[in-house]
Amino acid sequence: MEKIKWGLLGTAKIARQCTIPGMLQAENCELTAVAGRSLEKAQAFQREYGFRKAYGSYEELLADPEIQAVYIPLPNNLHPEWSIKALQAKKHVLCEKPLAPTAAQAEAMIRTAEENGVYLMEAFAYLHSPLIRAIREEIDSGAIGKLNYIESEFSTPGHDPSNIRMHKDTCGGSFYDLGCYCTSLILWMFGQDPESVHATAEFSDQGIDTMATGFLKFPGGGRGVFTCGMDLAPGRRIDRMAFYGTTGSILTDAQFNQDGALRYTLQTKEGTVEKTVETPHNYGLEVEQLGRCVMGLETPHVSNAFSLRNSKTMDRILKEMQY
Predict the structure, then answer these.
(1) SS3 207
(2) Residue 299: what pLDDT?
């Protein structure tokens, strides 16, 4: 099988814990090079995961003609800068979510990809999940009637003050880090943009939101409610989603990026049915999918049009929050 030669731009925790394990499972992925802020950091990743090359700067990796695609797990505020540099270097880009801090920056990234004839895809791994696909198919088939309400929450404990998620200059906060999952899920399932949004948040002394909640209303009366936070007790986590229609509901205890045998419950007037969906590693699925795009076999599952819609919705919510 043809393998796409991938480069990793940065040595972030999400790469170590989530994306690299997925890359190792992806059949069409070759771990070719890793770049860090220091050569020592990059070489440590190289030894641990088997990258063929290590670079002490991002520029060196982007200058490597062998690299076809780049994964960017950098802090949110650096997504536009380094995605654009990678795209200008004719590399396909898988950029961590959220794609950019603002919709205007997302538009610039998308424009750069188009101008250079390469793919840009936002790394919402969970949207590649067979569970999410199964739920969407149930909704589209009318299994619960007309979808009219989605509830989504993603909350975790706080982080050490040194963590980039805790600083405003790196676009930290619970909404950028976690709430983007909720808004993307709501937009994905409704398939349209909200006609109105309302949101409020609680802020830390550092100016980042430690909890945010919002209400999205859609044409035709659909509603979406989300809550996100980084203020739970250590060891606690809330990661849930529920879908309600005019004739039934879909409930699941699965988390956004969970894999394995995942269950959801379809409740209608005919009764309750529990279904199981075998779900591979979501991060591996997204890497494989972009790899197939590079080979000319597909187009990105998470399209630029969808990412821009979510980014514009996030802009509206952030304004409401007064972030």
Answers:
(1) coil
(2) 97
